[in-house]
Amino acid sequence: ARQEIMHNFRKLKVYEKALEFTKAVRFVTRKFPKDELFSLTSQFRRAADSIVLNISEGAGNRSDKEFAKFLDYSIRSGHECIGCIDVALANGYITEKTHRELFSHVDEIIAMLIGFQRSLLK
């Protein structure tokens, strides 16, 4: 079963959702002020990408325990994205509606990652 996960992480629903989220983050951050390019814009994009990258990197591990550790990094990056969403709203870079949409998207990803992590550690 472990080999299957290693080779098929791209088929994981959470991986697909995380990829969709990075696209949404790029779309939204394109409208951020240019002076945020090397701060919030960059940070937000890296945090969103990190969710995807840690799932894929973790899938390459031989043990479920190691994979679960990388899922933990993805979860942390998800929380970092929530901070970025809040900062963007506080500074008027996004609307309340966009805030709600991005938050619910990443919140769902975090919940899925936690569930997946629990199943690996059983």
Provide a descriptive summary of the structure in words.
The chain is built from five helices and no strands. By secondary structure, the protein is mainly alpha-helical. The model has no long low-confidence stretch (mean pLDDT 94).
Q: Point out poorly predicted stretches.
A: none
Q: Helix count?
A: 5
Cα-atom Rg, whole angstroms? 15 Å
Q: Using the alpha-carbon principal axes, give the shape.
A: elongated
Question: Proportion of β residues?
Answer: under 5%
List the helices and strands in order. Answer: HHHHH
Q: Count the E strands.
A: 0
- What structural class results from the helix and strand content? mainly alpha
**In which range does the helix fraction lie?**
over 70%
Distance between the termini: 14 Å
Mean pLDDT: 94
Largest sheet: number of strands, sense, barrel closure: none
